Amino acid sequence: TPADRRWVIDPIDGTLNFSHHLPAFCVSVGLEENGRYVLGVVYDPVHDEWFYAARGHGAFLNGRRLRVSKTPLKNAFMATGFAYHIRHRFEPYNQSFRKMFHACAGVRRMGSAAIDLCYTAAGRFDGFWEMGLHDWDIAAAIVVVEEAGGKVTDFRGGRSGIAHGDMLAANPL
User: Fold this and answer.
1) Mean pLDDT across the chain, nearest whole number?
2) CA distance 119 to 107
3) CA 153, 157, 162, 166 torsion-angle sign
C-alpha cells in the first residue's frame, strides 16, 4: 500500500559543491518500502551519468551493468566525507581517517555521498565511509551499491548505525 512506501529525495546532493560551482553534485531519488530501500536513481548532470538499481534486478550506469571492485583494503582507493554539521564529532572522524589513511592506497573527498557511493558501485572507488549522513543522502545509492555486489554496514558491521548516519560501503573484501 502507499502507506508502506516513502520516497526519499535529495534534489541536490553536494549542495555546497553546487553553490560554489564545483562539479560534484547530483540528484538522488530512492524508494523505501516496508522500511527497506528498494529502488534508487542518482543523476550526475555534469557528466550525464544515470546510476540506477532496483532490488533484485542489478545496478546500472547509463545501461551498463555495474560491479564493485575486487581490490583488497591495502590497495584500495577510498572515498570519505565529513559533513559541516558534525564538527562536534571531529575527533572520532579523525581517528577513522587516520586508520583508513594508513590501511589503504589513497583517500579522496568529493563532497557528495550519493556520488561517492555510486562510484563505489562502479568500481571507481573501492569503498566509502562517512559519519552524520541523512537518509536522503544515501537511500538511492545504497540500493545501487548493494545491487552492484557491495556491502553496506555501520561501523560495527551491522545495519543499526546507518539510521544514525554512520556508514561504510565497500566491495566484500
Assistant:
1) 93
2) 13
3) negative
